[in-house]
TrEMBL record:
Residues 635-664 are annotated as: Disordered. Coiled coil: none annotated. The lineage of its organism: Bacteria, Bacillati, Actinomycetota, Actinomycetes, Micrococcales. One of its GO terms (molecular function) is cadmium ion transmembrane transporter activity. This is Heavy metal translocating P-type ATPase. It comes from Georgenia thermotolerans.
Length: 664
């Protein structure tokens, strides 16, 4: 199929080239001048026929394009007897067009690679038997078997077995991820060892891979602002060249000069300069697990001067753990404080709730069942009714709003917050029982990511969080952000983004696409991290980073800037070529054939320059062997647990978010 496509692509220039060679052989080798002219005319007709048809189709759509310029020049050359010029112009244009299509096809190779990894078949477990079926025929809920070396045919959850999955096609990560019961896997990834039983949750068009392919298809066809401008420019530039040629011909009485102006005025390199760079840039990003929504967002990302980061789940692992249970009522025990708090948090979706519930379970406390009533208080905490008792878990502001006396909780809250932990006051039936504290591990690569953003040209990196100022300050000091704003509600984050914009910054906001929706919508570029498997993030974010590695963020900024730099270089090449050729025609020495040759050469230069974007730029980072994640406020010399040592959280663990942030 590919061979047939290539043959069709090169059939016209090949036939025209053979006819030109035969013409020279007949007229100069055999002395048959008449036969040579016929063959040269045939060469012009073979190469020029498709060009004339394309020009007529464009005219029917009221578009005056490059094909019309070449058609008029070639027909005019035939009329005045310049058969060699006509054949040369159409032959070179046909070669350039074939090369252009071939190279554009190559720049879309990332999409072709994504399509190629789509699985064809699946092995489904039915009534204890292994049955091979088309991948699209798997029904949600069915169990699929993934053996060593096989492609995962569906999105799903591992329900049995262990294995290593190469997820490069989804996240861009080259190191296989270990999978076990409860982990998620994605269609198009490849097993590199082990045996997995996977319960299908997404099949066919509902898989992450299908969404990525759809998004890349749309993105590569989306126009950049510069491209839209150039299209408007060429809409009047092409008629202007026609008018110039007519005037030059009438004034000078030189028809060849007029036809030559038509040829050298072709803005082919200018028209293709932007789309080829956009396609190559978006393709490079797709290979690296960076989905960019389109050329407009690519250009905007290149101008980013400030990055606003959510703290929890972005700069930290998003897996907070219970670190302290402080009993303030002498009549109560540790369990009397932790148990009702965990029961109340069992009805909360807030990320800190999971840390409290898990901590209670780890101490052997029963957390079964949901509270009778749950009332989340955004930015302050939660009020719940547990077995008839009114339980409050949250900030001192929540206690004040509910009329609960402090009873010494503020001092404990300040002490825990100063240690870099997130405290939560627990009150039962109107009296303070104690204070809980949780802490989140800073990602080991967070500081390097902030440094990389600065190196990529970002002037300000700002952390936005709903957490306590003391906790936020501890994280900020460790990762090196330029500014930290703590205790924020969702609307406060929105205002923070707008303030940065009022200061003249082009702002990228990094969040989860749901809880930070107002700020993400207001930002010039909305970035979703760890978006693999998240349909909302893939479809709505301007930039979606499929993996959970922080270095993807500065890589996305650098890629956008490389792409825009390439666009500008291409525009300079195109305009410079036209200027040089115009000067050459006016000063003499540039013929129609030479003009077309230079024109096609400039097209190839522009395409080759854009194709450099397909190469991956490897940046070497210094290795800090002493670096390791540490719980905020925890003794730095304490040995890190295996979870803390793992710099790569499992896919899908997007982690804690700050929209309903609660802190002391």
């Amino acid at each position: 199929m590919h061979a047939t496509s290539r043959l069709r692509r090169w059939a016209v220039p090949l036939a025209s080239g053979l006819l030109i060679a035969a013409s020279f052989a007949a007229s100069r080798g055999l002395g048959a001048a008449a036969a040579g002219e016929v063959l040269m005319l045939a060469a012009a007709v073979v190469a020029g026929g498709p060009i004339v048809l394309a020009a007529l189709r464009a005219l029917r759509a009221r578009v005056v394009g490059i094909d019309l310029l070449v058609s008029v020049a070639a027909i005019g050359a035939v009329v005045i007897g310049e058969l060699w010029e006509a054949a040369a112009v159409t032959f070179l244009f046909a070669i350039g067009h074939a090369l252009e299509r071939a190279t554009l096809s190559k720049t879309r190779s990332a999409l072709a690679e994504l399509v190629a990894v789509a699985p064809d078949v699946a092995v489904v477990l039915r009534d204890g038997e292994q049955v091979e079926v088309p991948a699209g025929a798997v029904a949600p809920g069915q169990t699929v078997l993934v053996k060593n070396g096989a492609k995962v045919p569906v999105d799903g959850e591992v329900v049995g077995g262990t294995g290593a999955i190469d997820e490069a096609s989804i996240t861009g990560e080259s190191i296989p991820a270990e999978k076990g019961a409860g982990d998620r896997v994605f269609a198009g990834t490849v097993s590199r060892g082990g045996f997995l039983q996977v319960r299908a949750t997404g099949v066919g068009a509902d898989t992450t891979l299908a969404r990525i392919i759809h998004r890349v298809e749309e993105a590569q066809d989306a126009r950049a602002r510069t491209q839209a401008f150039l299209e408007r420019f060429s809409a009047w530039y092409t008629p202007a060249i026609v008018a110039l040629a007519v005037v030059a011909g009438l004034v000078s009485g030189d028809v060849v000069l007029a036809l030559t102006l038509l040829v050298i005025g072709c803005p082919g390199a200018l028209v293709i300069s932007i789309p080829v760079a956009v396609v190559a840039g978006i393709g490079r990003g797709a290979r690296d697990g960076i989905l960019i929504k389109g050329g407009e967002h690519l250009e905007t990302a290149a101008r980013v001067s400030a990055v606003a980061l959510d703290k929890t789940g972005t700069l930290t692992t998003g897996r907070p753990r219970l670190t302290d249970v402080v009993v303030l009522d002498p009549a109560l025990t540790r369990a009397d404080v932790l148990s009702p708090a965990a029961r109340a948090e069992a009805g909360s979706e807030h990320p800190l709730a999971a840390a409290v519930v898990d901590g209670a379970r780890a101490e052997g406390l029963m957390v079964a069942g949901l509270p009778e009533h749950t009332d989340p208080v955004p930015g302050r905490g939660i009020v719940a009714v547990v077995e008839g008792r009114r339980v409050l878990v949250g900030t001192p502001a929540l206690l004040e709003a509910e009329g609960v006396p402090d009873d010494g909780a503020a001092a404990t809250v300040d002490r825990l917050a100063a240690a870099g932990r997130t405290p939560m006051v627990v009150a039962v039936d109107g009296w303070v029982a104690g204070v809980l504290a949780v802490a989140d591990a800073v990602r080991p690569d967070a500081a390097a990511m902030v440094a990389d953003l600065h190196a990529a040209g970002v002037r300000r990196v700002v952390m936005l969080t709903g957490d306590q100022p003391a906790v936020a300050g501890a994280v900020a000091a460790e990762v090196g952000v330029d500014d930290v704003r703590a205790g924020l509600l969702p609307e406060d984050k929105l205002e923070a983004v707008r303030e940065l914009q009022r200061q003249g910054h082009v702002v990228a906001m990094v969040g989860d696409g749901v809880n930070d929706a107002p700020a993400l919508a207001a930002a010039d570029v909305g970035v979703a991290m760890g978006a693999a498997g998240t349909a909302v993030a893939v479809e709505t974010a301007d930039v979606a980073l499929m993996g959970d590695r922080l270095h993807r963020l500065p890589e996305a900024v650098r890629l956008a800037r490389r792409t825009v730099r390439t666009m500008r270089q291409n525009i300079v090449v195109a305009l410079l070529t036209v200027a040089v050729l115009l000067a050459g025609v006016l000063l003499g020495g540039v013929t129609m054939a030479i003009g077309m040759l230079m024109h096609e050469a400039s097209v190839l230069v522009v395409i080759a320059n854009a194709m450099r974007l397909l190469r991956r730029v490897v940046r070497l980072r210094p290795v800090n062997f002493a670096a390791r994640p540490a719980l905020l406020g925890k003794d730095a010399e304490a040995p890190a647990s295996p979870e803390e040592q793992d710099p790569s959280p499992r896919l899908g663990e997007v982690g804690a978010r700050d929209q309903l942030a609660r802190s002391a």
